[in-house]
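Extended Data, panel c. Modelled sequence:
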Amino acid sequence: MRLHELKDLIRVIDQSSIQEFELEQDGVRVVLKKAVSAAVAPVSRPEAVAVKEEAVLPQPVQKTSEPVAEQPKPEPKPAQPAVAENAEADANLHQIVSPMVGTFYRAPAPDAPPYVEVGDQVNEKTVVCIVEAMKLMNEIEAEVSGEIVAIHAENGQLVEYGQPLFTVKVK
């Protein structure tokens, strides 16, 4: 089995609902097991609605023969969806995400300097980190040209598929 075939197999299993996979081919046995997460995310969350509380003061009694029209109470407005403050700035930001489950490393070796720091310029082929999966060191490239503005993972941290690793301000 070739390395790219193994990577493709890991990616397919990671994206599927399969929890355990076993393959034996030409005397080579591969067993893939997903870690079971203790915390399960809720399927849906009810949206919170902001309600403005107003103090109600007693109305003085009016002694007139005309009926007093009751003033309508203001209806609470539903909470507005969160809108990005800088929509233009967000359009220029790209997140580099983990393509697999594994261990995040910022440098090629423990005593080596990190591949990138905040403020560094990168291009599509710049290696920004390594994600180790099943004893394979997978170099992760920037995918875009720009400037590193944030690093979201710590060295040696376990990362999930799709987890943001870096934010790049695209040129």
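The helical segments are 3-15, 87-91. This feature is highlighted in the accompanying rendering.
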